[in-house]
Write a structure and sequence with these properties.
Oligomer: single chain
Distance between the termini: 9 Å
Radius of gyration: 16 Å
Order of helices and strands: EHEHHHEHEHHHEH
Number of strands: 5
CATH topology: Rossmann fold
Largest sheet: 5 strands, parallel
Bound molecules: adenosine monophosphate
CATH architecture: 3-Layer(aba) Sandwich
Strand order of the largest sheet: 2-3-1-4-5
CATH superfamily: P-loop containing nucleotide triphosphate hydrolases
């Protein structure tokens, strides 16, 4: 299967888990801006030094930085067969930049999968994750802020993609295997 997909959803909605599974199953790369930024911070690169404070505060980094990352990443040969964007776009300007980039490449998005999860479940999941993965932004006050940032800056993308008839809603509160089955169903319907 070749598919150009976006996984959209609040922090803790299971995007990373589902993207990793899709990558293993369909052999198309998962492109996670959060992972790329954290790796840059850990490696102490100039980009990492520039973005560290944003990540620590749970704020979005400037659009131009992530758009550049995606532009370079989509030029890599492994994305020819398709890609799963995980955590990008996160603002309307990012989505517009992505549309412009994909139209240059003449490969419009096939679908945007929106993993819907209520705030209470997100808080539960992220506080559990904090115990295992030691992310600097999985502290309780930062977790709550990241959810607010999602609601303010990223949730408008739901309408953005609904208007393009690209949006597919997935109930993300269910166990991971059931969410995976729902995603497979959507992908089958894309043909
Ligand atoms: P994530 O791993 O997707 O939860 O991302 C972790 C952090 O990386 C976010 O809280 C932001 O600080 C930053 N980040 C990741 N993706 C983006 C993006 N598309 N736009 C802006 N900031 C981002």
């Amino acid at each position: 299967m070749a598919a150009d997909l976006v996984l959209l959803g609040p922090p803790g909605s299971g995007k990373g888990t589902q993207a990793a599974r899709l990558t293993a199953k369909y052999r198309i790369p998962q492109i996670a801006t959060g992972d790329i930024l954290r790796a840059a911070v850990d490696a102490g690169t100039p980009l990492g030094q520039q973005v560290k404070a944003y990540l620590d505060r749970g704020e979005l980094v400037p659009d131009s930085l992530v758009v550049d990352i995606i532009r370079h990443r989509l030029a890599e040969p492994d994305s020819k067969q398709g890609f799963i964007l995980d955590g990008f776009p996160r603002t309307v300007p990012q989505a517009q930049a992505l549309d412009a980039l994909l139209s240059e490449l003449q490969r419009p998005l096939d679908a945007v999968l929106y993993l819907q999860v209520d705030r209470r479940s997100l808080l539960d999941r992220l506080s559990h994750r904090a115990a295992v993965d030691q992310r600097s932004d999985d502290r309780p006050e930062i977790i709550a802020h990241r959810i607010d940032v999602f609601l303010e800056q990223t949730a408008p993308l739901i309408d953005y993609y609904r208007q393009q008839s690209k949006l597919r809603l997935i109930d993300g509160t269910r166990p991971p295997e059931e969410v995976a089955a729902a995603i497979d169903e959507v992908l089958r319907s894309l043909g």
